[in-house]
Structures are given as C-alpha cells and as structure tokens.
Predict the structure.
Amino acid sequence: MTQTPSALRLARITKRFGALTANDDISLELGSGEVLALLGENGAGKSTLVSILFGHYVADAGSIEVFGQPLPPGDPRAALAAGIGMVHQHFALADNLSVLDNILLGTEALWLPFSRRRAARDRLLATARRFGLSVDAEARVGTLSVGERQRVEILKALYRGARILILDEPTAVLTPQESESLFATLAQLVAEGLSIIFISHKLDEVLRVSQRVAVLRAGRLIALRETRDTHKAELAELMVGRSVSLPQREPRERGPRVLHLQGVSATRGGRRVLDALDLDVHAGEIVGIAGVSGNGQLALAELLSGTLAHSAGTLTLDDQALRADPRDRVARGVARIPEDRHAEGIVGDLPVWENAISERLHTPAFSRWGFVRQRAARAFARKLVARFDVRLPGIDSPTRVLSGGNMQKLILGRALCVRGDAGTPRFIIANQPTWGLDIGAVAYVHRCLLDAARQGAAVLLISEDLEELFAISDRIAVMFKGRLGPARDAAAWTLADVGLAMAGTPHGGQHAA
Amino acid sequence: MMDFLSSLGDMIASVPFWVATLRIATPLILGTLGVLICERAGVLNLGIEGIMVAGAFTGWLAVYHGAGLWTGLAVAALTGALCGALHALLTVWLTVSQHVAGLGITMLATSLASFAYRVSFPQVSTPPTIQPFAPLAALQGIPLIGPVLAEQTALTLGAIALVPLAAWFIYRTPAGLALRMAGENPAAAEGQGLDVLRVRGAAIVGGSALMGMAGAFLTLSAFNAFFMNMVNGRGWICVALVVFASWRPGKALLGALLFAAFDAAQLRLQQDGGALPYQLYLMLPYVLSILALIVMARRAAYPQALMKPYRKGER
C-alpha cells in the first residue's frame, strides 16, 4: 500500500492475559516518514500492542521487524537500540530528578566513574534546537508543566536517536494551544524522516495528523484506512462497533441557588491554592470550569468534596454553611466524582460491592451494631451494577480489574445514588469525569450528568477538555493560578477566548473588571 | 543557670567531648550511608540492626582467630553483603513486604550471632578480647583539630571520607543516576533500558556491606570485645537519620554528628552527677533527635518509589 520502505512490521501478534485476548493476530506495517494512527476504545488492545513493541510484554505469538531486522521480544533495551522511542501517556519521568538526569539515564555505561554531564547537556540542547523544542536542562521535572514534561519525553527518545516514535494518547493532558504545538513538532519530526505511531481515541486529531488509521476493537485489527479516504462518522462506528449517538442538550429550568462561594480562599502547605473565589451554581444547571491542569482545579474539587478546608470566605450549600467533612457532604446530597479514579475514586483491591457502598458505609442502610449488612450491601451493588450497566466478572471481583469506563460507571452510580435509589443529588462535583474514557463511555457520563441536571441537581464540571465543556455546560468559568474568572454563558465564549483566559490573559477587560 | 551554661560551654570547648562525639558518630555514619543507598534505590532495609550485630561478631571473631584488623573489617562487610543478598532476594525478586523481610533479617542475624558466640565460647565469665585499631597518634601535630583526630582510629577517618565519595557516587556517576531512578520511577528506568531488579539488588548488597562495617567498628575500634547488646538500637537511629538527612549524604554526616554530640553530652552530664535521675540523660539524645526529625522531615522529599516493589510487566 505505501510506497515508502517499511520502518516497522508487526506480523500476527497475539497476546493473552488469562482468559482475555488483548491482541488477536494483529499484522501491521509502518512506512518510513509515515504517521500511523492507532485508534480504538479503552481496552481495545492499543496499549498492549505498543507495550509488546517496546518490550514491556512478550507476545504469545507473532514477530516484529524493525528496518528489516527482527526485534528480540521482551527487552526494552533492544527496542531502544533498534531506534524505537516511546512517549508514555503517564510520563515515564522521575519528578525529583532534573530534566538532564531523566534523559541521561541509561545512555552511559554504569561503571564509568563520572557522568559526562556537560557534553550531554550540549547534545541535548542541540537536539532540542534542531526540533524546535525548548527545555531547561537543569529544571526539576516536578516543577514543569504537563506540556513541558511531554516535551522532555519526546526529547528523551530523540536524544537516543529514535527513528520510530510511539505516542500514547499524547493530547489527553494538553491545552488546545499545547496540542497545536505538539502537532507542529510531529510535522517537523516526520519532515526529518521519523515514523510515528499516534495512539488516540480522539477522532478529530487522528484525522488531522495521520496518513493512515488502524482501528482496533476488542483486540482485533478491524480496519486499516487511508486517512484521506475516511471520515469521522465512519471511524467512530468502526471503533465502537455500532453507531454512537452523542447526547443532546435540552433547555432546562434554572432553579434556586444551591452552591454559593464568596471570597473563598484555601491554603495547603502554607501556599495559597485558592484565591478569593466567587461562584454560584443553581439547581438544574451545569457550570463548567476550564483551565490548564495545576491551576487550582484539584483544590477546588477537594474543597467541594470536603477534604480541604477553606481559610476565608463563605461556602454554603442551600444557604447552610458547609464543614470540611466528607461524610457530612454525602449526607447532604453532594455527589463526588474525583479526578483520579484509581487513587481517590475506588480501592482497587477491594471487591466491587465494598466500593459500591464505601461512601455510605456508616449509614443504617449498610451497617448495624458495627457489622456490615452484607446482604443489603450486595443487593445494592447488584442493583447499581445493573442500572449503570457496569460490565464486570462479578460484584465480588476486585475493582481494579474493571476497565476505566466501567470503573467510572461504578463511581457515577455510587455518587448519583447518594440519596438511595430514588433521589437525585443536590450538587454534583465532577472533576475530569471522562478523562481517559472512550467515546461510548464519555457519552454515557455526559448523559448521566445532563439527566441529573434535568432532575434538578446543580452540577460543577471541572475539565481540561474544552470540547466536553462546550458540549454540556450552561456556563463556563476559567481558572488560572488559583483564581476563578466570571462564569459566563457558554454561548458567550469562543474557543480562542477560553484558551487565552487559560493562559492568564484577561479577555477584553470589559467582562471582568 | 549561668553556672550550667558556662559548664556546657566548657564541655563543648573540651577535647574529650569532641573525641567522644566522633567515636560515637562513626558507626552511625557508616550505617546511615548504608541505609541511604538502599532507600535511594527504593528499598527499606530494616535488617540494619541485625546486620550490625552480625558484622560486629564476625569481624571480631576473624580477628580473634588471628586475622588482621583490616581482614576482620572485610569479613564484616562480607557478612553484611550476604545478609543484604538475602534481603534483596526476598524484597526485590520475591517482592515480599520490605518491613517484614527487614525485621526478619534483624532477628535472624541477631540470633545467629548469639548462637555462634555461645557455640564458639561455651564457658567464659569475662568476654575474650582482641587488640583493636590503634589511635592515629601521628595526627597530633595538626593545628586545632589534631588533638581530637589523634584519639581516633583509621575507621573513623575512613567513615568521614566515605561521605563525599558516596555523594559523588550518587550524584555524579551513571550508576548513581541509575540508583536514584530505580528509587524514583522504576518503570521509567526500565523504559530507558535499565535492569531495575539488578540495580536494586546491588544497592542493597552494597548498603548492607556498609552496615556490616558499622557493626565491626564497635568490636574492632570502639571496644575490644563482643557483647550481645552492644549495637543497642544504633541501627534504628540510622534509619531515622536517613529521613533527617532527606536522603543526602552530607546531611547524613551532619545528623550523625548531631546525634553523637547529644549522646556525648549526656554521658558527661551523667558523670557530673546532676540532680536528675540518669535515665533522663540517657533519654536526651533520642528526644532531641525526634525533635530534629520533626523539623527536618516535614520538608523531606521521599524517593517516590520507596517501599514499592517493582514487578516487571505488571499494569
């Protein structure tokens, strides 16, 4: 199909994890100077495939050739030596070490009495200049922004002379402007003759950056298309296996004020993380909070979830003050969907049913005389699993085996059932609820939030995905350096304005003041 | 009050105080560096207390049976390395809980040393002795610090010299970088082509060898005999000192000296026969250490992967 010589050839790769076949007889070819998009939902087998390619896993069957040479399986060193570079979704960087340390690691023999740091720095800066990626070599990685860390990851691969670059969901954490600059970088890399595998489930990006698209579903290669011969709807259907209807926004009644923040500030570790926030959220509306990650969104979510106390200002729910106590929140009808499902949302090693009741473990519904009412708890979990369509082996299996989407459904179910099966929550705080989910699951989460709002819940949606914010928010406010701009009607914003406000440039001035 | 302060001032200005401080600090310096190297690679090594006992015993036993003092030190280091290899096998390759494995090794090494001592010397009323390292009298001539150094042995000077070497190793060599990366983000280290398990294993073996030498200092330099309780919690102090030092060798030296100074001070206060029960003086270095730890450890940047076993290919 491609006229260019092939850089990489995967032949009949199969990988099983127990009963699950993560990759089923996949054959693929990557041309020199080509951008191949690997498209698929979560759990489709994209990450497994590239992990095999990079030697993290060993395939049960199949072989890999790089530039005509067979690649020994299960050895990251061999993959690196063959010119394969990987940019992980969760960056493979050590926060406490400097940029140079992170890049230098593994490039020198371990028995040398000293690192040639100056030469390494010169070479790093030369590489950075050549590809137009600016970087501070001595900065501690922990102090860098997400976009900068990604640049370090790319540089790490380039520094080692990678000819094939694999990017795993590279835009998931970037602002629109940062994504743009990443695309420009990719174009430059291709111009230099590198081949790129671009893993994503965002259709617009895939159409924009790739020459060919490989669609994976349930471990199988479903389709291989020339990008110019395909379109968004076709790809969506191939990826999901059925046509996806995106939820529509209906006009809703705006009810009384539910959440009220006036001059709310909070500090953590002596640092002010929230600075005089003013915000009202009314019943039946969804207010979206935009912002580059690390500008106080997490603190805001924690404040509203009851795990961070405010140091100044007024914070009320239904005109009654809120204490910093998570249990009190749950009792008053606050539903919480935390940012990091694995770290804060669920306890991975506990069974599904225990996670399902964990928020209300202390209520009479699930405990009596200090014992858990197992039967009631299991019945509730079963009902929740059925109602929210959580796909799982059983309610007794450990929760960590669930896919991201199903885990999120479990959390949604737990949060939205906060007042028992019938009631709706008063207020929902959703922090990045669709992060890392596929289209089907995203639509599901959005539909849940829209339904809850229609039934009278006040919803605060914190997201770094502007498309998502514009899709379901009634009003949008932008957070920057712990401050919150005014919440304006979603229709009154343009994408460019939001992008500017995210970068700290106050728009116009006449709106703010 | 003024009286007390002036006597405290006299003490700090006195040569015997500094002699005692350096001597008490030596095993702490060696042990703390050992723990520090293990923890930088991401592995807690609570075996230190037992490894020090074992090193103290085997080093002394070798010398007692006619080996040279330096050979005795090497035997102690080898003993430590063997214990470390066991710890590495358990925690790195078998991914057993690091706490449990470490405490297990402490108990095993302590009991084995006790057992071997009993078997070797079934019936002794006074512990047999050896001729320990001699003070370096030749250093007497150095101005200001000469009188203090002349009372120390080569082991003390060696331990102090080891601090900049350890810092160089950790911060300036490729192997040191691999060590730090294995303790910060092992998955990333493997992605860079590093064998994390081997790096961690080597760190534990090396660190434990230092712990063995720390123990040997007690029998080959500080005293001339082996007693069962001679380590007496020094290993645990080292574990705390690493946190105090924020995993930095220079600060580890500082911490060891500080603790030793407190200890030397309380010894003198005891001898002066103050009005207080002597147990309170015994307590002093620990109380002050806890206070110092509280102040310092709040800002400590832990190695991110400390106590997290690394399993290859696991999601």
Observations:
- The two ends of chain A are 59 Å apart (CA to CA).
- Chain A has a mean pLDDT of 85.
- Residues 257-348+403-502 of chain A form a domain with the Rossmann fold fold (CATH 3.40.50.300).
- The longest strand of chain A covers residues 6-17.
